[in-house]
Request: fold
Amino acid sequence: MPELPEVETVRRGLAPVMEGRRIERVEARRPDLRFPFPERFAERIAGRTVTSLGRRAKYLLADLDDGETLVMHLGMSGSFRVTLPETGQAPGAFHHPRSKAAAHDHVTFAMSGGATVTYNDPRRFGFMALIPRAGLETHPLFRHVGIEPLGNELDGALLARLFHGRQTSLKAALLDQRLIAGLGNIYVCEALHRARLSPKRLAGSTASKSGGPTARSERLGLAIREVLQAAIAAGGSTLRDFSHADGELGYFQHSFRVYDREDEPCPTPDCRGVVKRITQTGRSTFFCPVCQE
Ligand SMILES: [Zn+2]
Reply:
């Protein structure tokens, strides 16, 4: 499943061919993905200009010049392919070769400027929706979405406020999308290791008695931003279903310190611990029981 850095990588890949461009033609080859396409989907967006391409949590948001926003979610296996007219080639890192099977090409956007943007999704858990921009924040899809982990708000003080008094594990609190949006299992494991905090610790213990920041919450805030920024810089992680075939997969996996590294030595300098795997709320947690307290 694509995590936030992958979605942000896709956004950055699509922006140059979509932002400021008109959608000349749209073809939806099925009536639905996870949900039905909006009524008269192709008609409603053909001829519209994409004024900006943003992201909220793991949703891509293409603002259109008629006040609607085309919301796109990649589900479990969705990807976009950009084809440029001069070469017929896809230009780069946001292209996922796994998705070449034309049978899974469900939507194409022919953009002014000549690029064709193709949405491919073998498992069809992704979806597209049209929502008036003005009502986006209160729409059921977005109403309960937590803060952006890459936004300016996330710091030690905010984490302390969010987690104050919470009796769940730190791991579970970080995965709670109503608190922080778009942070998935891999990056939670990595951030906790970087912050040297145990995933089993109570979330509330990262705040002071009055809900103020502590050294722990400050370290955690920093670590979350660092792991996400590193992943985006590496072009998004490319695990399993969401893989590159061109060697970037191996390259990027090296930067995971604990995720999927059970029984390997802890990478923290001078730590003699070994990475352990436990299950928390149904998900694998990888951590070092020696340096993560
Ligand atoms: Zn360690």
Remarks:
- The pocket of zinc ion is lined by residues 266, 268, 271, 273, 288, 290-291 (CB under 6 Å).
- The mean pLDDT is 88.
